[in-house]
Amino acid sequence: MGDDSNWRKFGVGRRSFLKTAGVAGATALAGCSGGGGGGGSSDELTVGALYALSGSIEVIGRPMMNSTEMAINQINENGGIDGRQINLIKRDNASSPGTGVEEARSLVNDEGCSIVFGAYTSAMRNAISGAFVNNEVPLWYPTLYEGGVCQAIEGAEGFSGEVNVPKETLEWVFFNGAVPKQQIQPYIPWLMEQEGIESFYLIGSDYVWPHTTNAVLDDFVQENGGEIVQEDYVPLGFTDWGSKLNDISDADPDAVYFTTVGASQVAMIEQAAELGLTDEYVWAGNIMSEQEARSAGSAADGIYTSAPYFTSIETEQNNAYQSSYDESYGQETTPNFVAEAAYWGPLMAAELLRENNPDASTGPEVKAALENEITLDAPQGTVSMDPGTHHTVLQSRAGQFNADSGEFEVLREFGQIEPYGITVQQNCLQG
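Above: the chain's sequence. Below: its structure in token form.
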């Protein structure tokens, strides 16, 4: 590990090293050497990154890959994990769960990774998690998701209500993206009051996260005196929105709440704007990031969303993160709330290894090091690991997109929110 002067240069203490966010500053994860294989040299820890670099999710997957790569480069540049360097293996899941499974198995069995960072949709996470559970290698998942940790979620249309993340899977997956309690519980009553909303039309992509998010959303809407007038879903990658937008117009809601993802979301907003529907109704969700909003351009102006992080946040850590990102990757892709999590996740994992077992080389050794409390200053603000659930305490905000600036204006700060409750059972792993 580098000397203290490197940490203090960016206002970073050993317990608070994420103040380096966007510049260098942490420990390094060297080579993925778990899962029974042997990646890299004995002095390295080989890690994997598995994101969508092609297909319908590429628009969001590429900045996630960039951010993970940037974090690991910074870790290596600053001395690694007590001198150990990270050997990063990057793979494209092609937005296809089938491809994701093949690449996950290859990262573990062929490359010998001890930990893998990756996945965006819950459909992808659910598909690939078996490869990590079966080979006892941690998967670090940096994306917002539905929860369902050690408990059933009931009431979702088209959703069975079975446990999404059973305990045997949870033991090998670590989460630093938001769950419904952290993202939509404070946001929905605020949004309804902000815009005088009494009725919602729900439209989402057809997989587990939108179905389950809408089930939780329905409860929050009813608790605040509103109603859901219709709920509908489309296949992943869906782009021909004509008939669906006619359905929305016929239902005449106060607000359209969308849980569509990737290229499908961008096409929906562009086509809705062409028909004047983005002016006629309030459009809101909790999945749109700067990347999709900028892709939709002026059509996305005025859309609301909720997230732990926005590029417009004025912090030293965020300014450093964005500066480093622009310097490394230019402005063809955009940092966003899942890319930000894909950035500080490796930094947090590296610090946990440095503090608890810098020589860890197998999947079980890495997992044991990760299962400890830690608090860091990320670009979004202060974040903490909760070992009892493998989830993190995150910031929560509401924002509205300004097409002129290309950023979300933060309208409300909800502060730090713990992950457990609603869809995450407290101390699940310790019970």
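The chain has two domains: 4-178+311-394, 182-307.
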